[in-house]
Design brief:
HATPase_dom, serine/threonine-protein kinase, 11 strands, 3-stranded antiparallel beta sheet, Phosphatase 2c, domain 1, kinase, Anti-sigma-factor_SerPK, ATP binding
């Protein structure tokens, strides 16, 4: 996914500069949390209701060419070619993201100087404003690696699991290969968020997925208190279920679903790495051949 935004904040002096810097960070945070640009814009309005801003936001799936956008004030997102009714870009399409009085270019022809020159010319012609241009060359293959940032809030887990499921689907992983992995990730994140952070402050957990040839690698990092889950003794499955150690059951399930599980403590971070062999391969690799 690629997110592009142009923003114009009206004001003067140091106060406007501080508002712009704050809004920039707010926008980046909202784009990391919400998939829908309209929800990003709503979050910015709610948090910065006293800031006089105009904005144009674009979110593009670089694999499929699907785009979504939201605008406020004079913001505009326009496609300088035929995007089609399904809102998917085709090779050669140019997307114009602007605020202020900057009009889109009069022609889809790109000068030898590149799109940057087109943007500069239109801003100069308008006498100010803010604009960006994006050339969509072609649909690409889904990225082999994806990193997701999860706040230490249990309510953030379902969204992350949805993103993981989308990653599996993009790489056409067989259902039998990834069965139970969502429960594994849920178990790890639930325990991490519940027990790793004792200072009461906001933290982030990083979940990295890598689709390699015949293997899925999942890495979970957190900066919480040191804890090696592999040191938890295996549960005695002969005991009554009410007497079994909950933590041990979770680790046992993780070991059962995954083929390899490793832990290390590195520069203040807990790093849990999980490997899963993909017996069915990946459909995207087959289509490439």
């Amino acid at each position: 996914m690629l997110a592009v935004a142009t923003v114009q904040i009206k004001g003067n002096g140091i106060e406007a500069v501080l508002e712009a810097a704050s809004f920039r960070q707010l926008l980046r945070a909202a784009l990391a949390v919400f998939d829908d640009p309209d929800m990003v814009l709503s979050a910015c309005r709610e948090t910065s209701h006293q800031v006089n801003f105009e904005v144009a936001i674009l979110r593009l799936d670089t694999s499929s060419g699907a785009l979504a956008s939201a605008t406020a004030g004079s913001g505009r997102v326009e496609v300088i070619s035929c995007a089609g009714e399904d809102r998917r870009l085709s090779a050669g399409d140019i997307v114009w993201i602007a605020v202020g009085d900057v009009p889109p270019p009069r022609s889809a022809d790109i000068p030898i100087e590149g799109l940057g020159q087109v943007v500069d010319d239109e801003i100069a012609r308008a006498g100010g404003g803010c604009a960006a241009a994006l050339l969509f060359r072609s649909q690409g293959h889904p990225a082999r690696t994806a990193t997701y940032v999860v706040p230490n809030d249990l309510q953030a887990i379902p969204r992350l699991l949805g993103q993981v499921a989308a990653f599996f689907s993009q790489h056409a992983m067989a259902a039998e290969d990834v069965e139970g992995i969502d429960v594994v990730i849920d178990e790890i994140l639930t325990n991490t968020i519940g027990y790793a952070f004792s200072d009461g402050k906001a933290h982030e957990v990083y979940v990295n997925l890598t689709a390699e040839a015949g293997e899925l690698v999942i890495e979970v990092r957190d900066d919480g208190v040191p804890f090696d889950p592999l040191g938890v003794p295996p549960p005695d499955l002969s005991d009554d279920i009410d007497l079994r150690q909950i933590g041990g059951l979770g680790v046992h399930f993780i070991r059962t679903v995954m083929d390899e599980v490793d832990y290390r403590r590195a520069t203040g971070w807990n790093v849990l790495t999980l490997h899963k062999h993909l017996t069915q391969g990946m459909g995207s690799e087959e289509s490439e051949s």
